[in-house]
Design a protein that fits this description.
139 residues; mainly alpha; 87% helix
């Protein structure tokens, strides 16, 4: 397993767990300014936790295999990244369009922002899953 694949697996797991926690803990009954304040605080907590949880293993992997960590990207890596980004982009565009409809239907800014956050997270998960899948299949 290459260094990039290990980092992709790690990132995929951390993002999925962090935003699963966010979705379970968020007080969905709140609307308006209280919901925005809670949302902002929770996003700060998630961002700090993800930074710590992703940085420490990445440093450990880089120390363990410095040659793999410093290896330049080859054509295969660039192709995998490009294809995965395209798939994630489609998810992001569809999710963003759905958020406009959600905003029109509800009129609640917190709901729209949570929808946009869900679109971004889903797009990133699709991108990472596509990359991991491509590495596993040997594309």
């Amino acid at each position: 397993m290459t260094f990039r694949e290990k980092i992709d697996w790690l990132t995929l797991a951390v993002i999925a767990l962090a935003f699963a926690w966010y979705a379970m803990v968020f007080p969905w009954g709140l609307t308006g300014h209280p919901a925005l304040a809670v949302q902002g605080g929770m996003l700060i907590v998630v961002a700090i936790a993800m930074t710590i949880v992703l940085t420490i293993p990445a440093i450990a992997l880089a120390i363990h295999r410095p040659r793999d960590a410093n290896a330049p990207t080859d054509e295969r890596d660039r192709t995998i990244t490009r294809r995965a980004a395209t798939r994630g982009y489609y998810v992001l565009i569809v999710g963003g369009a759905c958020c406009f409809a959600l905003g029109y239907a509800t009129g609640d800014l917190a709901t729209v922002l949570n929808g946009l956050l869900a679109s971004i997270v889903a797009a990133e998960l699709v991108r990472l899953a596509s990359q991991v899948s491509a590495y596993r299949r040997g594309e």
